[in-house]
Amino acid sequence: MTFTKRMKKSIFVKYVLPFFQWYALLIVIAIIIDYFLHRYDLMSVGRYLGPIGTFAILISFVYSLRKRQVIKSGSPKQLLTFHEYLSWAGSVMILVHAGIHFNALLPWLAILMLLITVATGLIGKFILKKANETLKEKKLELVSKGVTKEEADNQLFFDSIVVDLMKKWRTVHLPITLILSILVLMHIATIVMFSN
Q1: Helices marked H in the chain — which ranges?
Q2: Which of these, 122, 108, 125, lies nearest to 25 by C-alpha position?
Q3: Which DSSP category does 68 fall into?
Q4: How much is the pLDDT for 28?
Q5: Do residues 166 and 55 make contact, with C-beta atoms less than 8 angstroms apart?
Q6: CA-based angle 169:175:180, to the nearest 5?
Q7: Dihedral (Cα; 169, 92, 182, 58), 10-degree rounding
Q8: Which distant-in-sequence residues (6+ apart) come within 8 Å of 72 by Cβ?
Q9: How far, CA to CA in Å, does 97 sit from each of 28, 39, 51, 131, 157?
Q10: pTM summary value
Q11: Phi/psi of residue 145, nearest 5 degrees
């Protein structure tokens, strides 16, 4: 199999590139909304999108409560989908709320943590499970064609490295989510303290 054919079928092309497209779409949509709010002098709308987006993300954590069996009702699969899309939409609203302002460090740190949290969440959603399944399928296919397990491992070396790196996503996603939560609470506290 040629390098070009292998790249077309590679896990990187099938799953990692679409991840970057979804991530870029998040940022592009936020920029477009922010542009139109500024163009039509509706910047005050952006101020309200922060709390609405935060509330949307908080509601999405029903999935986490179900996963940890704090609540017993609801389909875990449906709640995961609910979590993914509501968090993504909430993140767009928060990015619009943040806008392009360079007057405070705390909100920028929160936005950085938000972007990292979204990235790690998208890795879990779009990439890891499918990539792991694809890697196993490719290996079985090669072995069924008479390729030894060692040769199959050599041919799938790059894909294996990509999947192994992606398996570490949760070790980043959960602590970053906690840091994001702390920064959001600090941001809200400073807004309340200094709003007079």
Answers
A1: 3-9, 11, 17-39, 43-60, 62-67, 76-98, 105-122, 129-144, 149-155, 157-166, 169-194
A2: 122
A3: T
A4: 92
A5: no
A6: 115
A7: -90
A8: 66
A9: 14, 15, 9, 34, 43
A10: 0.69
A11: -85, 5
Here the tokens at position 54 are 């935060």
CA 189 – CA 32 distance, rounded (Å)? 29
Question: What is the distance between the alpha carbons of residues 162 and 132, in angstroms, rounded to a whole number?
Answer: 10
Token digits for 194? 């200094």
Can you give the residue ranges of every domain in the chain?
3-194
Tokens 């409560």 — which residue?
65
Locus of tokens 């979804």? 22
CA 12, 13, 16, 17 torsion: positive or negative? positive
Least Cα distance to 48 among 10, 93, 11, 3 occurs for 93
pLDDT attached to residue 6: 53
At 65, list the tokens: 């409560």
Give per-residue pLDDT as tens, 123-143.
Answer: 777 667 777 777 888 888 888
Provide the token pair at 101: 């302002």
Would you place residue 86 in the very low, low, confident or very high pLDDT band (cuts 50, 70, 90)? very high
Alpha carbons 10 and 15: distance in angstroms, whole number: 8
- Measured CA to CA, the distance from residue 23 to residue 79 in angstroms comes to 21
What angle do the packed helices 157-166 and 129-144 form, to 10 degrees?
Answer: 150
Q: Which H or E run contains 71? A: none
